[in-house]
User: Fold this.
Amino acid sequence: MTILEYLIHNPLTRFLAQAVTVIVASRLLGLLAKRIGQPLVVAEVVAGILLGPSLMGLVWPEASAILFAEDARQLLNVVSQVGLVLFMFLVGLELDLHMLRSRGRSALIISQASIVVPFVLGLLLATYLYPRYADGKVTFTAFALFLGTAMSITALPVLARILAERRLLRTRVGAQTIACAAINDVTAWCMLAFVVAVARADGVADAVRTTVLAVAYIAAMALLVRPLLQRLAARVATPEALTQNVVASIIVLVFLSGWTTEIIGIHALFGAFLLGAIFPKEGGLARALTERLEDVVLIVLLPLFFAYSGLSTHIGLLNKPEDWAVCAVVIIVACVGKFCGSALPARWTGLSWREASALGVLMNTRGLMELIVLNIGLELGVISPTIFTMLVLMALVTTLITTPILKRVYPDEVMARELLDTVEQPAAVPVKGYRVLVCTAYASSGPGLVTLASALAGKGAGQIYALHLKHPEERQSDLIGAPDPTESNEVLEPLLRRAQELQTDVCPLSFVSPRPASDICQVAAAREADLVLLGAHKPLLSQVHLGGVVHDVMSAAPADVGVFVERGLTQIKNILVPFQGSAHDRAALGLARRLMKSLGAHVIVLHIVRPERKGASAMVQTVFGEEHGQVTFDLVEHTDPAAAVLERSRKDIDLVVVGLGTEWGLTERRYGIQPEKLIHECPVSLLIVRDYSAPEVAVSGSPEART
Assistant:
């Protein structure tokens, strides 16, 4: 007995080992997928394939035979099917029928065309595939109908994730795409229910009976069960009222609905989806219920389904050049059918070519929903393992190519301009004046940043933009039901209240961003900002405040950048500006002068020379003099310039404005374990300035290109 056999000695330990392996593999590949801009479902599909016979079965067949033994797959299948039932209920919960009705004629035309065109192409492709790859026991009708349905699927959850990460979710094309995908889902699942009924039926009479029972069940759910659910939703109006008994009752209804449709002959998944679709979306019950179930379903149960699918995906079955050629044809037909069936009707209904192309690319996303359909087909014996493998590769490729092609259709600079136009009133954009882009990640930092920005912009002479970038939500329900960006934002509210107290006009901007540094630079370019003002935040496991996102913005922003370290700033009467003559020092002096003119503050320009260069003191005094109006020039001899600044900052100073530079111990580093002494030990608030025009602004190795 091997060690692995000893560790996995009964069905329970084997299942636990399977779950650990699958979840760890999915999460590790998920980190890689995120870095290359791919949705998590891609990583989970790949993880399932890698754990199957396509890789693990080849490189470590002994472990594969023990861990995923044939007799152990039944338990894995049953648990994954339970996960799928709950997942389809969640998909139904996310389906807002009011949204579908509000989109009206255009969404209906696009969605139905995006089904009809690939469905017809699938039927034509079936005439070639059936005699070569289908099981002889399967009728051509069932095979062709299933293949056409498989070509028509769009993955709504994956599509919502991509839309959110590309900041398209609340644009016109995003809203239209979500509506089309939702209608597509409803239609495709109805088609699949009919195909399953045909595949399971022994004859025409049996198929007709199943169809009639399915229609009767749908009517009963809509007319009888839905009113009961509405009463339940009215009673459970808050998340606190969602007790364990209520959750248990709803899950029992989900299983009963799935059980009923399974007995009817149209698969349990359809029953779960139907219950979720008719579930009342008003109030907080649907959202609270989704939050209760989502984590377990998405993190634990769904990866088990991907692993089970991977065990059925054997790439080695495509062992001939003609098999790979057929697989390529399947992928091309799927892409052409979905894109043309979506983009052309979208253009006809009034979208621009860019928007129509983006919609066509997005509707080609298949992901998880396609795998669910394919597993149903394999379970029923409608498709062979070879066709199953081809279609799994098709689902993977169509999902993989969506994000890269979408980036070409909607480049970052175009996306930034169009997104800003959707969240901002054009009348608020001034023609002239000093423009400050305030970027805040936390509500606590907003008031201090806008106070400083207001003084820099000047009363009525400039424009302040307040930008908050939201991280993409992990919950699919939050993506599809996310609030509109123009609505109240909790992070920006303290900033806006402070601006109102200062009688300063601020234009708020907020949207989802997976790449905050790049988007800050894009917004700065689109709004022609003169200064980008950031709060200082240490990246994880780092002692530097000028790393991470701050580093990337400083490297690529098309404007001067100020990093504000606030330490209880209440007034600005005395400003200290360390000055050695660099471009960054001159930019710092320029901002200090703006504060002096706006607030009437006193500026102390501190010039530090080393003792060995004592002769320079007389030259500085000759050039600057002892004092000039609201500006005082101090000359200090010190071996450590940063220490000299710290000493002077303790003497009646409200704000230190310092240029980026090694002489002050302030350099751009993406990561670091050595803390910046001036930032950590300065007793007053600090504004660190980087000059845009400095020749060293383009930092080698920066991940962001200059805008």
Observations:
- The two ends are 62 Å apart (CA to CA).
- The first strand starts at residue 435 and ends at 439.
- The chain has 29 helices and eleven strands.
